[in-house]
Every structure is written in C-alpha cells, then in structure tokens.
Design a protein that fits this description.
This protein has 723 residues and is mainly β. The chain has three domains: 17-298 and 529-615, YVTN repeat-like/Quinoprotein amine dehydrogenase (Methylamine Dehydrogenase, Chain H), CATH 2.130.10; 302-522, Sandwich (Jelly Rolls), CATH 2.60.120; 629-717, no CATH class. 4% of the residues lie in helices and 41% in strands. The protein is built from three helices and 56 strands. The strands form 14 sheets. It has a seven-stranded antiparallel β-sheet, with no helix packed on it. Strands 27-41-32-37-38-39 form a six-stranded antiparallel β-sheet. A five-stranded antiparallel β-sheet has the order 22-23-24-25-26, with helices on one face.
C-alpha cells in the first residue's frame, strides 16, 4: 500500500491512495461511472450524501445462487486507503450467474442467465427497477428478450437521445449480446422498444459510441455495427457494416473477449492479442466505421494499417507479412538487424546493399491498381546518401510503370509515380538524412491526386494525370532496393522499419494520428508489445475517456498503452488479473483475490467538477489567451522563433504563405499578423489572401498599396485537428 502527500501553495490536495476495496474471489465484472463520467449532474444534483457521489465503482459478484452489486465511492479515502464502506448493495436473487455490467446516467445494466436487470438511485435509493422505463427484462417481459442467456451488455447515448425527466439529462440506450439462440444481439432503445439481430455468436464484447452499436458477429473474432445510427433502427435485423475481422479487412486479431470504445479510438481483444482501431468514422452514414487498425501481441506491433491492407512488413520480422495477405518477402543475403533505439522492442532493418535486401515478386495485390488508390508508408533513418537510395519500390525493370519512395544524393526524399500516361515526381526540398527516425507517407489517391507527408505533415502534392499503373505480373516490390531488379540503388546509409502498403488512402488527419501514435516506438527503451511473460491472450481492455490511454489486462500483466507504446506497467496486486478500468490517473483492478483501487494525489471531487463543467452543454468559445500557432520572422522570411509553424513561403510581390506544423481542424480560424518595418513608404497593411487548414496566405502592402516586406509577427487562434 502506498501513501503519497502533495502540498502546493494555495491548493489543498488529498493524499494519493491505493488499496483493497474487498477481498473476494467471486468478482465477475466492474464499471467506473457517475456524473463525472457522464459529464452532467443527475436531476440537478452533483452528489447526494450516502446515496451516490461524483465518481463510483460498481462491482458484481457471483454468490452462487444470486448476484450481488456493490457501489463504491471513489472520491473517499482514509489514511491513504480507499473507503471500504459501500454506498449501497443490491442483490438479484434470480440471477445465479452474472456475466457483465455497464452504466450510463446512473442506470446500471447487469446481465446473467436470467436476462438483464436495471438498477438505479433515481427514486432515492439504489434498487432494481421493474416498472417504468428502463427496467429489468427477460424472455417473459414486454418487450421480451429472445432468450435469457445474456453474456455481455453496454450502455451509452444514441445519436438523438430522448430526454429523461428522472435525471434531467439524456436517456441512455442499452445493448446486449446473447450467448445462445437465433439472435446474436439486441438493442434496447430509449423509447422503450427493443430490436434483435439474427445470428449466433461466441464473442462477449459490445459497445455504444458515436450513436452506433458495436457487437460481435457470427464469424469468430468478427465485429460489426449498425449501418445507420441508432435512431434509425425501427425493426429487427437492421443493416450492418463490418468494423473488423481476422483474415480480411478491416483487419483485427479478434474481438471475442472484450471491446471498449471512446469517440475516436477502440480496443479489442481475445486469445490472439490486442487490436487498436483509430480514425473511427463519426459521419452518420452507411459506410465503413473504421479508419485503421494496429495488431499487437508479444512478438510484433504492426503500427496502424489503413483499411484495405496489402502488406505489413518490417514489424519485428525481415520477411513476414503481418497482414492477412501473407505476402512474404525474400531475404536476399543477410539484412542487418538491430533495435531502432537502445533497449527498444521494435527492430530496425538495414543498412542494405545490392546483395543484402528484401524483395517480393509481382503480385495482384499491387500490380493491377489501374488509376485507383495505392498507399506506401515506411519509417527510415539515414546518415546521408551520396547517390539514390530506394526505400520502398514497386516497378517494372524498365521503370516506365512504377511507384517509388527514395532518397536522393542531396538528402531529400523523392516520390515518383509513373503510369501509362505520364511521369510525376516531387520531393521534400529539405534534408531528411539527419540520423533521426522519420515517417514517410506517399498517398496516391488516384491518377490525378497524390500527396507526400513527412512526420505526419504534408510537404508536397501533385495532380499530373499519370494514367494507369497496372502492369500485371511485371511490378516486383523492393524494400531497401530498387524493385525492378532487386539490386540497384540499395539503401546503403539507411535503416528501415514498419513498411505498409494499402489500397486505401488515409486522410491527412489519419496520417497525423498514425505518426503521433507510432513515433514513441522509436525512442530508447520504448516498449510496444504485450508484456505478459506467458501468453498473447488479453482478458480485458478499457479505453480511458479522459486521456485515450488503453488499459490492457492479461492474466500475469497489466499494461497501459498511450498510442502504440507502453505508458506504464502497474504491478498485479494479487493472484491473477481479470479486469481493469481507467479514469485519468485513477485505476481499478479486479483479480482472482480482490478488488483493488489506486488513485492519484489530487482533489478528486474538484477534478470531477472540472470535467463535468467542461463536458456540459454550455456555450463554448475559443480561449483567445492561448494561441495555437505563432512566429516571429526576419525580413527575408526566415523564422526567428515560432510555435507550431513549419515554414514560411515567400511567393514574391508581398505574397506569403505560413505553413502550420499541426493543421487546424478547418479553414475557420483567426489569424493576426503585424509588421514592424515601415520601409517602402510607411506602415504596412496585411490582409488574408485565403488559405486552408494547413496554411494561411497573407498579402502585405505599404501605405502606397505596393508590395511590402514579410510580416514580422503572425499569431493564430482556433482548434487544431488533433484536439
């Protein structure tokens, strides 16, 4: 047990606390919930002494012939230990075998072999609700469940939630997964209706997020969602979309054990390991709901794979394709290997030579793209080539049909597409051979649209109509070498890792998200794999709604991932791990011996109130005291000091472009620019001449209306794309 006191001038903080809530080997599941999680008070109340608090933990126990639900106050502690006095205990006498629990707006839903039970405090005390709506349901109630065998439940808000007079907030929607019978799942809507989806499943996880219901499919490890938002479901057997599946795309390792979702990130697990899905589609339409996925076990971490993946290489193997496509590379000679950084778990490959490199014969996965989409991505670290070095090459021997990423002898990255119609080439224009790991992304959207990114930021584009890049059977692939012959242009000064090929074009936002999630894998001592000493099986996952970190529970390891790297590895409190939940720095643990909680040194009530306030539906505005980008320049457009400004382009005649490091969410943001140089006839005028989320265009004139010097100071306010 650990006790830490923190003192800060003018601020009273509670002790950090950790300890056992209850010693009990019969815990089945748990959920962190409360007004802090929902972001609003229930029925105008923030807390009500002895009934509920702002942040709570609900646990369910299998007592043999019944289910016991305990509600614990996570804001209470004494002498460095969590309060072991429960706020309430509710027994479900008919539920002999509980399976799961979820919560939203004070309503707890508990599943068992007897259907689902609803428990809430909204009538003044915690109790099972058997009348009104929502209420306990089974196969003999109205509405009726298909059968009473329910193995998983979830709770959340639909895209258009109804008003709940009990709480003064939105009415929750519930979802469930059946263990047997003709239906695989059901959704219980806020209007008092319930609809079933046909199919039989072995999976257990389900979730409601962004107005959609996510649930396991008939096929092992497969995950689906309703094709249109929850509000549109008015009958059984609604239209579905694939959200993830093993052995196809969008690819995941599996989801049979558990799933957890926030607004933009999902975590899925089963015996094969952990899958993270990001770039989740929030558009309410019948299209794929997943942007990219990462597959993680004790051996490899693929990085993020855009949907229609065609190859995922250099993920702790010099030849194995970690995608379901199985496009194994040929290891010509001996390609050197080493950690990407001292003590890191990810492996780097190279340097290469004309006889030591990686190739693959032409394949229908990339040699018949035509005028469609093809995407290449790779991490590279170069000390500086003296001539052309190929990083990722798909080309025929004559080089008249190709798509290539290569370093020039001038240390710039060059991207080339040559199709049946024309040749298109562009490069970074700046040195990337600095012995630092960089991520290169080449997005060929179509024959007339392509983009280049370095470290998540767009650095070039082209619209030349290249025509078709199809040449069936004639486009071999090379990594660290020219693909056309497997020997020319070896990357003799460059190491490579995480090469990916896809027929899906990631958006600029997804490119940024991939870079941000993966960059931590390339630093000293970085861990990016599952941390169990014995198994790939993951028992439970939980996405923290505050930080986006993911808590991963294995029988002998607890791991917190931030992006695709390990953030921390809490010690298993006792016995074997079973479940875990995160709420910021607060973590609850369920193991084979007890329920355990660890909380940070902070005033939890104060934090909860802040979070509730931020999440309330009050009007929100931009805080103009905090600029999101700024720069101070010299008269020749060189940057003297800056924040989130990548470069300034001088187009001549007083025309300038300020390029942002991290783009804004849209082109609707505020820019203030000034010039302190009155040369050329007096004070300067600076007006915006257009722009986009990635840059702003400024036009500078003097008092006579003539082109003037560069702006001296530029400040921008707004919302960045990653906020």
């Amino acid at each position: 047990m650990t006790v830490t006191k923190v003192a800060q001038a003018g601020l009273s903080l509670t002790e950090a606390f950790s300890g056992v809530l209850q010693t009990n080997a019969n815990f089945v599941d748990q959920v962190i919930f409360g007004p802090a999680v929902d972001g609003r008070a229930w029925n105008g109340l923030w807390n009500k002494a002895s009934v509920f608090s702002s942040l709570m933990l609900a646990t369910i126990e299998d007592e043999g012939s019944n289910t016991e639900i305990n509600i614990w106050d996570l804001t209470q502690q004494s002498a460095g230990s969590p309060s072991t006095t429960v706020l309430a205990t509710v027994d479900l006498s008919a539920a002999a075998t509980p399976t799961a629990i979820a919560a939203c707006m004070g309503y707890l839903i508990v599943s068992s072999e007897d259907g689902i039970a609803i428990i809430d405090p909204h009538s003044g005390a915690w109790a099972e609700r058997t009348t009104g709506w929502p209420r306990t349901l089974s196969s003999s109630t109205a509405p009726a469940l298909t059968n009473n065998d329910v193995v998983s439940v979830c709770a959340g808000l639909s895209d258009q939630p109804a008003y709940d007079p009990r709480t003064g907030g939105p009415f929750p929607t519930f979802g469930l997964v059946y263990g047997t019978g003709a239906d695989c799942s059901a959704i219980i809507k806020d209007d008092g209706t319930s609809y079933d989806q046909a199919g039989t499943v072995g999976g257990k996880g389900c979730a409601i997020f962004n107005g959609f219901f996510v649930y396991p499919d008939t096929a092992a490890g497969r995950m689906k969602r309703n094709g249109l938002p929850i509000s549109t479901i008015t009958a059984d057997d609604w239209a579905e979309n694939d959200m993830g599946q093993p052995g196809s795309y969008p690819e995941i390792l599996g989801s049979d054990q558990q799933i957890s979702f926030s607004s933009t990130l999902g975590a899925l697990c089963d015996a094969n390991g952990l899958s993270l899905v990001s770039g989740l589609n929030q558009v309410k339409s019948a299209i794929q709901g997943i942007g990219m996925s990462a597959l993680i076990n004790r051996t490899y971490n693929t990085g993020y794979l855009p949907v229609d993946i065609r190859g995922a290489w250099l993920a702790n193997s010099n030849t194995v394709d970690r995608s379901y496509k199985g496009n194994t590379l040929t290891n010509n000679g001996t390609v050197p290997t080493a950690a990407v950084a001292s003590g890191a778990e990810l492996t780097a490959y190279g340097v290469f030579s004309g006889s030591n490199n990686l190739t693959r014969a032409s394949d229908g996965d990339w040699d018949a793209i035509g005028t469609g989409t093809l995407y290449e991505s790779i991490w590279f670290n170069s000390t500086g080539p003296s001539t052309t070095e190929y990083l990722f090459s798909i080309s025929n021997s004559a080089q008249n049909i190709r798509m290539e990423m290569r370093l020039n002898g001038t240390d710039t990255l060059n991207l080339i597409v040559q199709g049946a119609t024309a040749y298109s080439s562009f490069d970074t224009g700046f040195d990337v051979s600095d012995s630092v790991w960089h991520k290169a992304d080449f997005v060929h959207v179509s024959s007339t649209e392509r983009y280049m990114y370095i470290d998540g930021v767009e650095v070039g584009s082209a619209t030349t109509d290249t025509g078709s890049i199809t040449s069936s059977g004639n486009l071999p692939l090379g990594i660290g070498v020219f693909g056309g012959n497997g020997s020319s242009g070896p990357a003799t000064t460059t190491k490579l890792a995480l090469a990916r090929l896809s027929a899906t074009a990631p958006t600029a936002t997804q490119i940024r998200q991939m870079y941000d999630a993966e960059k931590g894998m390339f630093v000293a001592s970085a861990e990016c794999l599952l941390q169990s000493g014995s198994t790939d099986a993951v028992l439970d996952v939980n996405v923290d709604p505050l930080t986006g970190k993911v808590l991963v529970t294995q029988t002998d390891a607890i791991t917190v991932f931030d992006g695709l790297v390990v953030d921390s590895k809490p010690t298993v409190n006792s016995g074997s791990s079973e479940k875990g939940k995160l709420w910021g720095d607060l973590r609850s643990e369920q193991n084979s011996a007890n329920a355990y909680v660890t909380a940070p040194a902070t005033d939890q009530r104060q934090v909860n109130e802040m979070v509730r306030g931020l999440a309330s539906e009050l009007p929100k505005g931009v805080d103009l005291s905090k600029a999101k980008a700024w720069c101070v320049t010299n008269s020749d457009s060189t940057i003297r000091a800056s924040y989130n400004v990548r470069s300034i382009t001088d187009n001549g005649a007083g025309d300038y472009e300020v390029n942002w490091g991290i783009p804004f969410k849209s082109n609707s943001y505020c820019v203030v620019a000034t010039s302190g140089n009155p040369a050329n006839g007096g004070s300067h005028n600076i007006i915006s001449n257009g722009g986009s989320a990635t840059k702003v265009k400024l036009y500078c004139t003097n008092s006579a209306g003539n082109p003037a010097d560069t702006p001296v100071c530029v400040v921008a306010f707004g919302e960045l794309e990653n906020e």
